[in-house]
Amino acid sequence: MKNPLKIVIVGASGKMGQTLIKQILADSDLLLTGAVDQRSCSILGVDAGSLIGIKTGVIIDDDFETVIKKGDYLIDFTRPEASIGYLEACIKNNVKYILGTTGFSDEEKQKISQAAKDISICFAPNMSVGVNLLVSLVEDATKVLHEDFDMEIIESHHSEKIDAPSGTAIRLGEAIAKTANLNLKKNGVFHREGNTNRRKNNEIGFSTIRGGDIVGDHTVLFAGDGERIELTHKAGNRSTFAIGAIKAVKFLSNHDAGLFDMMDVLNLKNK
User: Are residues 207 and 150 in the same domain?
Assistant: First the structure.
């Protein structure tokens, strides 16, 4: 690529931010032009690659409004309250947005959809290639099994994750609901305790585990009479999400506006 794609990272000092920086520096088609973190960040004013022993020439800054002007793409795996502010800045500066943050409200999701009329956005609760393939496999399995099998989603994450169920678990539930012609808000069961009575037909159950340093495990269970089918993805480290985010950057380079997800990036919608 003649002119490298200029990328700004937010949450640059975090584990995901550092993984993204490492991935960007390894790709000659990309150029890290900005790194942003909170004012309370312990390495503010330090080279963005200092924690991984790589010199980038980019200093971690807390002045997002200034730094965003240095890039053409923003990659964000932070929190919803921050992401909505970043979204507005992307529109203002015509910056393409790769958004992996989870936990948005319906109203916030609507703002993201509206913004996609002006800029190109890849919005996905999980950027992993494997997880998005899992979504596709779950859709295929649901077509065959949903009338005769009970459907449950089990997800596990590290103890610091603050939203539950995970955005990926919700995405898997949405895939089941759409394929089975169900409504996730009506058919989703997110809490069971005490005497819950017999499981109802067409329930989509969710179970959440939080503990240790689990990067992210997701299993979709189809339980029938005399047999069970489990489709599982386990993330060993955060590089899988960074690799997907880079694929999304390159995909958006061919789109000036529109709302996309990783299924678009991986061409899984047209399989």
Answer: yes
